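Why run this: before we spend reagent on co-expression, it is cheaper to look at a predicted model of the complex and decide which construct boundaries make sense. The entries below are exactly what would go into the expression plan.
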Amino acid sequence: MLAGDAPGGSLVRPYTMTRGRTRPSDFGPPLDMITIVVAARGRDDRPLEPEQREIVRLCRRPISVAEISARLDVPLTVVKVLLGDLVAEGDVRTRAAVPVTQLPEKKVLQAVLDGIRRL
Amino acid sequence: MASADSETRPGAREPLQQEPIPQAVKIIVAGGFGAGKTTMVGSVSEIAPLSTEELMTEASYGVDDTGGVEDKTTTTVALDFGRITINEDIVLYLFGTPGQDRFWFMWDELSEGALGAVVLADTRRLDTCFHAVDFFERRGVPFVVAVNRFDGADDYRVEEVREALDVTEGVPILLADARVRESCKEVLVELVTHVLRVRSPALSG
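The model came back. Tokens follow.
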């Protein structure tokens, strides 16, 4: 059997949810595994697909793209496509991780160090 | 410069007192299969380690009688990770690298923007972390080596490990127990201290 025959626990072909799209739309920011996503306020009235509704529900508190993928048992690439649509519609807001080309700020590193020491 | 946040996109919907969004940073926990990566992540994470899957389309080559026939298959790569909330504004994610060598390509995406890495060395199979050491050295990702002390494993001295792995004096090596929270904390403190030290000439703020 091919490893690709059993993607996670879902019986649905993964890209069915994205209507065959394997990449997010070009609109909006690129989504990383640790981009943080949060539901926008005042958007409860909009009708959404079931998967999108699940994502928005998870995003009531800030949550990473990887965590959404893990909690919904939906592959990262699929989550990124669904999120791209939600970002484009203004249903969720995102904050990117530190850009690749930049080093984290010293104050961020210091805060991380202090935070680990407090564990 | 273009921002990668959705906040700043032009024509964005009028915000309704939207709360600030925390920023995420990540640390990679690398090592060979069975070196204790997920155990270490679980020891310090505030949530039970989660697993996410990435779909990969890869060319596969026939190894049976169809010999030489090239085909495309979709493969899933599982990544285990944990989370530590540092403060209101910063969330730290710890990602274990996929154990199998064939998922080597995932390391590029994982290491992008990573604060640093822990290479977990298994003294029973030190050679399994050669790849990781090599990768982080080449990519310029600061790392420390944590020698996971398994029950019954020979007690290595740090200097023996340094020699075997051929890492310079500048790279901290410490003994650790991936099952013990305090020990894993110590490894992470050592790593971030090391990152601050090596990065400080170039750091802003």
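Chain A touches chain B through 57 residues (CB under 8 Å). The longest helix of chain A spans residues 76-89. Bring this page to Monday's planning discussion.
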